[in-house]
TrEMBL record:
InterPro entries: PKD/REJ-like (IPR002859). It comes from Desmophyllum pertusum. GO terms for biological process: calcium ion transport. GO terms for molecular function: monoatomic cation channel activity. It comes from the Eukaryota. The lineage of its organism: Eukaryota, Metazoa, Cnidaria, Anthozoa, Hexacorallia. Keywords: Membrane, Repeat, Transmembrane, Transmembrane helix. Its main location: membrane. Pfam families: REJ (PF02010). This is PKD/REJ-like domain-containing protein. Transmembrane segments: none annotated.
Length: 374
């Protein structure tokens, strides 16, 4: 009589968490950090809940201890009950989800139906902040006119302390933060700026993000006044502006062309024809760097916001710029934080374009209805 031996092998359950983005050797607080949980084994299909906790190491009475960060839910882009944890990086302004030069512990756990609680943790340190020099960044002049005054930013004080820094320059406009260049090792920049808001005394904030090779960063903000042109000044001629834009584009100077357009659009106020013409001058341009995404979106927003009527050509031009920005972001995978920031501008640009497109469609439908009645 034949006999069979039945061997039951119990599969071992393994749970662990791992970092997949911004992992070090030192974590950069200004960037997102992504942690994922991993589970293998039979009971992994019976997970009922995930949970995450964040702890900071502090020194108290000559001893080290862990203190839980109780507002973790405000520092993440995911839920606490999620297989992954995404720390926001930059929260608001200069605030980050993590402090610099600090040791942290992230704990992840799962609850299994009818089974044990499994957990794991990782410990990491964030980069130390940059040493701020006595002389940082300055700008000259501190007051000028839109389209006539070139403002020069000088960060040579930083460069004297560390020659391996990179600088990213941007300004805060009505559309949000608009980046003027890619991060470069150049402590100087000269640029036109859009007109400031009258309600804010024509103030425009210039932002300089300074980075070292480790990823540590510092932000300097400089405020200038960019006033409207005097009434008798004819510098802002629409035809001349658009010809300058086209010349920049012919030379491949997309950022310069976009800056020219943004500065002009900030001055047109209620001149819708001028806005349409300048937007259409940029419509066929192509993005060569991610910094230009914020510029393209700013052009669309400034040309379409608060418009009651708009032409089909302008809608087509706005759509062309937004498609170019969208297609570029689809292929750009170097820095997810940059993509997220640029994506915020893109969403606002799309929202404005959809609104004016809907208004235009309603107008055309009404006109067709009136024609049929007649």
């Amino acid at each position: 009589m034949a006999s069979h031996l039945l061997m039951v092998v119990q599969q071992r359950t393994l749970f662990f968490i791992s970092c997949i983005y911004n992992c070090g050797p030192e974590v950069i607080p200004s960037r997102q950090m992504i942690i994922e949980s991993n589970c293998t084994g039979d009971i992994c299909g019976k997970i009922t809940r995930h949970h995450w906790s964040l702890f900071k190491m502090i020194s108290e009475d000559s001893s080290l201890s862990w203190v839980e960060i109780i507002d973790l839910d405000t520092r993440i882009l995911t839920d606490l009950d999620n297989p992954s944890l995404v720390l926001t990086g930059r929260n608001n302004g200069n605030d980050y989800s993590l402090e610099m030069n600090t040791t942290y512990k992230i704990s992840g756990s799962i609850m299994v139906a009818g089974g044990p609680l499994l957990d794991d943790e990782i410990i990491f340190r964030t980069v130390a902040p940059l040493s701020v020099p006595l002389q940082g960044c300055s700008v000259q002049p501190v007051e000028g006119f839109v389209f006539k005054t070139n403002f020069s930013v000088n960060c040579s004080g930083w460069h004297a302390e560390n020659q391996f820094l990179t600088y990213k320059y941007s300004y805060i406009a009505s559309t949000g933060t608009v980046t003027t260049n890619r991060a470069l090792p150049n402590p100087y920049i000269t640029s036109l700026l859009p007109k400031g808001k009258k309600s804010e005394d024509y103030n425009v904030v210039i932002r300089v993000d300074i980075f070292d090779q480790r990823g540590a960063s510092h932000v300097e903000k400089l405020t200038v006044k960019v006033k409207p042109l005097p009434q008798n000044d004819s510098s802002l001629n629409v035809e001349t502006v658009n010809n300058n834009i086209k010349e920049f584009l012919k030379k491949g100077k997309v950022s310069e062309a976009a800056t020219h357009a943004i500065v002009a659009l900030s001055s047109y106020d209620d001149d819708d024809e001028a806005k349409d013409s300048t937007l259409q001058a940029m419509a066929d341009s192509q993005i060569s760097h991610v910094s230009q995404v914020t510029q393209f979106c700013a052009i669309v927003i400034m040309a379409t916001e608060n418009r009651i009527k708009i032409s089909m050509n302008t809608v087509d031009g706005a759509t062309a710029l937004l498609i170019e920005a969208t297609n570029f972001l689809r292929t750009f995978d170097e820095d997810r934080d940059v993509v997220e920031q640029a994506g915020e501008h893109l969403i606002l640009g799309i929202s404005n374009t959809l609104r004016v497109s809907t208004d235009l469609a309603d107008d055309l439908s009404q006109q067709e209805g009136e024609t049929e009645l007649n």
